[in-house]
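FW: tagging you since you asked about this chain on Friday. Here's the raw sequence from the shared folder, copied in full. Didn't touch anything.
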Amino acid sequence: MVGKRTNFGVAGGELDLLRTIRDRAARGARQGSLRLGIGDDCALLGVKPGEELAVTTDLSIAGRHFRMDCHPPESVGHRTLARGLSDLAAMGARPVAAFLSLGVPRELTVRKGRGGSWVDRFLEGLFRLADTHGCPLAGGDLAESPVALADIVLVGAAPAGKALRRSGALPGDLLYVTGTLGAAAAGLAKLGETVARRSSRRWIDPPRVPAVLVAHLYPQPRIAQGLTLRRRGLAAAAIDLSDGLSTDLAHLCEESGAGAIIQAEKLPLGGTASVDQALHGGEDYELLFAARPWLRMPRTLAGVPITGIGQIARPQRGMPRVMIETGTTVEPLAPQGWEHFGS
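HL: got it, structure written out here
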């Protein structure tokens, strides 16, 4: 996961850190749609004729989205970018550029031996995923903060009028997911006890990450799969699974004015995940999409398995939009995934 490191840590303060970030970002900005990157007051982006921009933003805060005592800095950087890339994937958009606003306590910028500072390692994780998906860091902001936080803005592009949306599902459409579900939630459940057993090490270094933790610490956004769905016209509606299947399916149904029924036995469980973790766990960053019933769906998209899990239905007055079938029992599936400010 991690190879040769680049030290971004502070030697002369903010300007030194900004300079080293700019130098590293320049490596990923030599081609593509970024016309002018870090160094001016604004970045300049160019897209192809007939394209429109897709823009998304996500905020990651220590103590809420990650734990300083559990999550390796590389994982925090990776996950910060992965969240935005997953949104682009759900729209069938190609990544164009990223903008990062990073606030950290000063001590996280101080280099500590060969491993570098917390910021060094955070940026290493972010840049490695950015390089994988051809998404250059085009700008952002840097500030001293009492708590670590990262706000990421992702810009993507898709042919005008062709981006995938949540609102296109119709009754009778079939529901599919990419990959597997619940592995991220299962990994999160194991993370605390794994760190507790390794009392001599604050973080789990990337080369030593147990397999059960990989889906949580280093989720893989489905950019290639989203592009394939859009280019081949396979998806009528799509959403990424960031808050949990039960919650994100409810979002898709609401935007489409439809209902849905899923079959519990068809859920592709990841690793040691339970059905409950697959339904409500969140942070899988897989794609959930609806497709017309007459389309022949491939078994894989860009090397990732596709599984049918149910279908879109007409909403029934006085009934929940989403239902789940377990054996011969059909019952409401309440959205129990992640919700800020929820009970």
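FW: DSSP finds eight helices and 14 strands in the chain.
HL: agreed, and Residues 14-159 form a domain with the 60s Ribosomal Protein L30; Chain: A; fold (CATH 3.30.1330.10).
FW: great, closing this out.
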